[in-house]
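FAQ: What does a multi-protein file look like?

Like this. Sequence, then tokens, then the next protein.
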Amino acid sequence: MQISAHGLSLEIDDQGPTKAPPLLMIMGLGMQLIAWPEGLVQALLAAGFRVIRFDNRDAGLSQHLDHLGVPNIAIASVQHLLHLPVRSPYTLADMARDALGVLDALGLQSAHVCGASMGGMIAQQLALLAPERVQSLTLIMTNSGSRMLPGPSMRVRSALLSRPSDPHDFAALAERTYKLFRLIGSPAYPAPEAELRQRIMASLRRSNRPQGVLRQLAAIAADTHRAGQLGRIKVPTLIQHGDKDPLIPVAAAHDLARRISGAQLDVIPGMGHDLPEQLWPRFVGGIQRVAGRAG
């Protein structure tokens, strides 16, 4: 379903009773709302939530912003490493305002918020921008934006930035994505090959916007002041992170827990940078507990 939010056309999926506690789920870099697995959504619905997913700007079926141009990620990466300012077509705070627009469009005064990876960064910005709109905060495999944190290995970084020589070669793009997901996935909970390939193909058929990924990546690199502001977050917060995450190393979770007062930390053995089916009960239980702390 398309809605108008923060001046953009965004695709949303809204499931569950309208009077149930709303849970806004924000996905990561270049990912679509379907990256929140339907089985996980059904488990959250069974736990009593109204589950609201949406495609971020520049991803999926939401509005794409190609008129903003394509940032030079090589230059942005060097600037980030040298602690220099990074320019981006838009900011993570802008994306947080998109999320607020989703709540506005649905007539919701507030919601529980869960964000994964870049979605967790957007969720932090949302809690900073409008704390009265956030009932609880669940941050999965994400970071504070501090430049002092360890980053991905060169192997992971190279895989993340790689592109097929022919952007229209669907098979090559699917294979590149499969190799990336295998590289960053959970070593203790590897997804079956056929299932993983099926999910990748479904995502690519639904939408493929590589330029949008680069604009989102620039927004992440430019978001350097968030870490120093996180002490302002007072809502009940849960941090869930795998101890085998090669994209955002687990040191980021400990850093977040230090910065957000009262945050609870759940480090998950064997988990990488994905959402394995075996861990869905743990994710759901964690979201239930932190929502319960919000009363």
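And here is the next protein:
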Amino acid sequence: MKDKILTIFGGSGFIASELVYKLSENFKEVRVLSRNIEECKHVKVLKNVDVFLYDASNISSYTKYLKDTDVVINTVGILNESSKSTFEDVHFNFVKNLVNKSRENNVEKFVHLSALNADQKGPSLYLQSKGKADEYISSNNDGKFKTVVFRPSIVFGEKDSFFNRFNNLLKYIPIFPLACPESMFSPIYVKDLSSFVEESILTDKYDNQSNDITGPKNYSFKELIKYILSITKTKCMVIPLNYTLSYLQAFAFTYIVPGKIFTIDNFKSLQIDNISTTGLKGKTTIEEIVPSYLSKKNNKLDIYRKDAGR
């Protein structure tokens, strides 16, 4: 691999960043493509890494970076739709174009990070669009164009969007009505996930396969929220909501409250447990890692005090 080129899409995400650090030493050149290159400054310090701006809706903006590329990794994804970015466009249309252009440019291996429960017949648009892309990828592999699809549960790590998001939310509300409290998750540590990706690139072990990836333990949504509170010693009353109230909360956040904190599509995704009994499993638990970054005092007030010498 030392004489080969790796191109990673979704460079501003914390998973892509971990992959760049993990894989850069195995490649002659690493091309990181992002829609926000300002968020990729931290990886530019690596001598063989270059960051480029691209537009997912403009095929020509990224096709040129596929030239001479040997391995492509796609980490692009969204949790909620907007007027500019739909699940169909981001999760399927972009992936379809990327697969086609990768084949045209003789890319040897295409590694795609999907989502657990991705299924064209899934309960939510999110899962349907992910499943549609997975099927397209798998239908286009062969001996020359090898594909690998990983379907992780929620991914945790210092910059994750799950534990950090709920931690920031819980700090400022004394009462938290929790929708779908019994929904199950199996969090996978970002470094464990990146190790599977590395193995899939350096070996043929996962060629032309789709695999679920989870952590070693399963937790209910309620257990995860209470774990965050216990680590941060935050005082907040968690009120579990039943199915009807969970749906009403999702309806309100979708159509009344701005910000799309919890949408009807999110609610539909949570009707299937985010766990797997047959997939690949990481070894690292949330108890080993999450306390190290959630317990940090890194809010703005602390930063101001530090800057002022207090």
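Q: Is there any per-entry metadata?
A: Some entries carry free-text notes. For the entry above: Residues 298-310 have pLDDT under 50 and may be disordered.
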